[in-house]
Design goal:
DNA polymerase, domain 1; alpha/beta; two-stranded antiparallel ribbon; 2 domains; five-stranded parallel β-sheet; globular; 11 helices; single chain; Rossmann fold
């Protein structure tokens, strides 16, 4: 999930349409396809969270990357499970002019989450007939709990079954672009040759790290 700034960054372009045949052309003879979540499978707009936090009293010059809590960078720490959701909320409260409930904080944090493409499941099933599919996402429990709530557990289960593995950074306690996260995925999946993995992500740093690790990769923009 993308970093956001309450001074209101430019809106992101709409998510690129997910087309199984296009991704298969990029993946070629790979055995595995590893997909990012935000801006690949689900659209996001960080500006919406920025606006929500300003409404809760965040100063325009403040960015979430500055938030510290118990010697942690809170944004990174919540994505590696070094901070609990409760600690992450408390870190935010220290930077707001108004007292905000857990529900208000979660609503602001989750405002960046938009919608899945309506044709996504069909495209994933098509791609899954030719490749072994996996998700690898930098994210946090608050966002994923909200995705499950919006989709409903039955639909989220149907979505998850399109993948052999769903790797969230807070479960692995690692986040991209740390090379260790790509090595961990290889170990769990049983990848012997990294060149047999194709990775799709919207973040250039994550792509560069994957290429250095030996995966094939393309930036999805």
């Amino acid at each position: 999930m993308a970093l956001f700034y309450p001074e209101l960054p430019p809106a992101l372009p709409p998510i690129r349409r997910f087309r199984a045949h296009e991704i298969a052309e990029w993946a070629g003879d790979a055995e595995h396809i590893v997909l990012d979540f935000g801006k690949v499978l689900i659209d996001i707009e960080p500006r919406l969270s920025a606006e929500s936090f300003i409404s809760l009293g965040a100063r325009p010059s403040f960015s979430v990357g500055e938030i510290g809590y118990k010697k942690h960078n809170a944004y990174h720490a919540v994505e590696t499970d070094a901070l609990s959701p409760a600690e992450f909320r408390q870190a935010f409260r220290a930077h707001l002019r108004y007292n905000a409930s857990d529900e208000s904080l979660d609503a602001a944090w989750n405002a960046l989450l938009l919608e899945f493409q309506p044709w996504l499941l069909g495209q994933l099933r098509d791609l899954g007939q030719r490749y072994r599919l996996h998700i690898l996402s930098n994210t946090n429990r608050i966002h994923i709990d909200e995705v499950k709530r919006r989709m409903g557990l039955r639909a989220y289960g149907e979505f998850s079954r399109c993948f052999e593995n769903v790797f969230y950074s807070y479960d692995l306690k690692l986040r991209k672009p740390d090379i260790a996260i790509y090595k961990t995925v290889d170990r769990i999946v049983g990848v012997k040759d990294p060149a047999r993995v194709f990775f799709l992500d919207d973040n250039a740093d994550n792509i560069e790290a994957a290429l250095q690790h030996g995966w094939k990769a393309k930036q999805f923009i």
